[in-house]
Design brief:
With 147 residues, the protein is of the alpha/beta class. It has two domains: 80 residues, Signal recognition particle alu RNA binding heterodimer, srp9/1 (2-Layer Sandwich), CATH 3.30.720.120; 66 residues, Roll (2,3-Dihydroxybiphenyl 1,2-Dioxygenase, domain 1). Helix content is 20%, strand content 28%. The strands form three sheets. The protein has a four-stranded mixed beta sheet, with helices on one face. The protein has a three-stranded mixed beta sheet with strand order 5-9-8, with helices on one face. Strands 6-7 form a two-stranded antiparallel ribbon. A hairpin with a 2-residue loop joins β3 and β4. The mean pLDDT is 85. It comes from Streptomyces cinerochromogenes. This is VOC family protein. Pfam families: Glyoxalase (PF00903).
Length: 147
């Protein structure tokens, strides 16, 4: 990993209950929770869920919105999720995620094929919502042989 390339660091999701959200992302999505105990103890403002070694999802309580003053109107962003966040997974992790979500009665969309993304056309993808209504897409790409 280098620190001199452009890449996604984190996405902040507005959630009603950060601890419950961390549990969902751990048990249903399979992402490692970060700083949950510290949030409960009041030493950090929110917990997170680790997507990979470079990217996390911050699980910010909607009550934190009143402190969002970095830009005019930032306070109004609470409760306005982005359209969706896409997680790219290896085929086995894609299948495991779909199974975990179905086991926990989380509604999932049908599987799409060939949707375009950062790495070209995905082999398979599907959508689901977290308990706060944030929409996620899960997808995987076939590995292309290197020239």
């Amino acid at each position: 990993m280098t620190n001199n390339t452009t890449r996604l660091d984190h996405v902040v999701l507005w959630v009603t209950d950060p601890v419950a959200a961390a549990v969902f992302y751990d048990t249903a999505v399979g992402l490692e929770p970060i700083n949950v105990a510290e949030f409960v103890q009041g030493t950090v403002s929110f917990p997170s869920a680790r997507v990979n070694e470079e990217t996390i999802l911050d699980l910010a309580p909607k009550t934190l919105a009143e402190r969002m003053r970095m830009l005019p109107g930032s306070v109004d962003s609470a409760g306005h999720p982005v359209n969706h966040v896409c997680l790219s997974l290896p085929a086995d992790a894609f299948d495991a995620l779909r199974s975990r979500l179905e086991d926990q009665d989380v509604p999932v969309s049908d599987i799409d094929h060939g949707l375009s993304g950062a790495r070209g056309n995905a082999t398979r993808s599907f959508y689901f919502r977290d308990p706060d209504g944030n929409v996620f897409e899960a997808r995987h790409y076939d590995e292309q042989p290197r020239p």
